[in-house]
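Hi F.,

I've been meaning to write this up properly since the lab meeting, where we talked about keeping a consistent format for the predictions we share between groups. The idea is simple: the sequence comes first, exactly as it goes in, then the structure tokens exactly as they come out, then a line or two of notes. No screenshots and no reformatting. I'm using this chain as the first example so we have something concrete to point to.
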Amino acid sequence: MSEIVNVGICTVDAIGQTIDSYPPPGGLRLFDKLAMTTGGNAVNCSIALAKMGLPCDVVVKVGDDALGEFVLSECRKYGVNTEGIIRAPGIHTSYSFVCVMPGGQRSFFHTMGTNGTLCYDDINLDIIRQAKFCFVTGTMVMKTFDGEQTARLLAEARKAGAKTLLDTVYVDNATTEAWHAAIHPCLPVLDYFIPSYPEAKAVTGLSEPNDMAKALQARGCRNVVIKMDERGAFCREADGTETFVSSYQVEKVVDTTGAGDCWSAGFLAGLRERLSMPEAALLGNATAAHCIQAPGASTGIVPLEQIKAFQKKTPLRS
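Output, unedited:
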């Protein structure tokens, strides 16, 4: 068992590149290539951490099918501890088709599968209780586990002495009530809420990062980081200190798939090394910068020392 445990969603991703436009009914479009990879926030973050040289556990639910076996084998290949992976007969492993646009942005077609049935009672709590950091990631597409069950797990982790973190999936057609039901119960037991800007806006209904963070802290969350894509990240600490952390300059964006999950891996690595919250966010930015320069969710991730070397020689965006 490891200091870091990532709990949440996994998928098998079929990544189509490059998708210039969608065909009308009965129509056809050509694209360049297709790659099959593991995906989902928890698996992406775990593999990124393992490639950085940091041991971690992953807790996800897969089907007793070929895709589930693929998830297990890929995690084992990179050295992720798979003791917490749950196998579920009769339910298919979650699957996504990822459409990569010419600028590197992506859209998803997703079937929920086992992610929708993950529940508190599935989880080996010994793994949670022995961790120093418990990260739940994939909220909004775990219809059984989202909300009260997630809050219960985070409370259990906190009781055992772990720092708790939460990230979400941006579901653009989700109602405000759905966002509140999934997120609000978790905020009082969260040390770090790390949504993207669209996710934070969906939860709070606000548009300024500092106002979003204040609203989330007013509901109990201690620290908030709002990921802002190529601009960087906005941090608001428990004592009210606010910092904007710029992103790093990169030569070419190839694929943004998994960028947020790799950011989370870098942020966790920084917290594990006892960096300040802005310094940990900057390490997250550097890790995400490696991700977006290669196709796939974690292909570009290198050992932590190489990421630190990149930080020393690479300028920040102005």
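Notes:
The chain has a mean pLDDT of 95.
The CA atoms of residues 155 and 189 lie 6 Å apart.

If this format works for you, I'll send the rest the same way.

G.
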